[in-house]
């Protein structure tokens, strides 16, 4: 079973991904196409939910997004607050 990261009341991951996508001058459709080329069955609707913070993103999707945006996990998780 594939692991997922749950976004609860914190859409920083989604906001960061949206900012990275915009900085790369990519549309959601282009990002989805790149994910599909990596054998990740993603739709534009799912990707939109990822950016909105309402979809529990899979680890494999996160890894692929770091490759697509030529970034690292620190950038994606920047600004997140964690409850202790």
Offer a concise description of the structure.
The chain is mostly helical. It is built from five helices and two strands.
Description:
With 84 residues, the protein is mainly alpha-helical. Helices cover 55% and strands 5% of the residues. A two-stranded antiparallel sheet has the order 1-2. It is globular. The mean pLDDT is 86.
Helix content: 40-55%
The number of distinct helices, counting runs of at least 4 residues, comes to: 5
Chain oligomer state: single chain
- Helix-strand string: EHHHEHH
> Can you tell me the residue ranges where pLDDT is under 50 for at least 5 consecutive residues?
none
**Average pLDDT taken over every residue:** 86
Structural class comes to mainly alpha
The description of the largest β-sheet is: 2 strands, antiparallel
Beta-strand residue fraction: under 5%
Shape: globular
What is the first-to-last residue Cα distance? 27 Å
Please give the structural blueprint.
Elements: E1 4-5, H1 12-23, H2 28-37, H3 44-52, E2 57-58, H4 59-68, H5 73-77
Antiparallel strand pairs: 1-2
């Amino acid at each position: 079973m594939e692991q997922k990261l749950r976004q609860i009341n914190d859409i920083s991951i989604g906001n960061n991904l949206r900012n990275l996508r915009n900085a790369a001058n990519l549309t959601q459709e282009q990002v989805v196409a790149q994910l599909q080329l990596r054998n990740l069955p993603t739709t534009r609707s799912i990707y939109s939910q990822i950016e909105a913070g309402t979809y529990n993103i899979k680890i494999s999707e996160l890894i692929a997004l770091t490759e697509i945006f030529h970034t690292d996990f620190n950038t994606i998780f920047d600004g997140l607050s964690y409850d202790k």
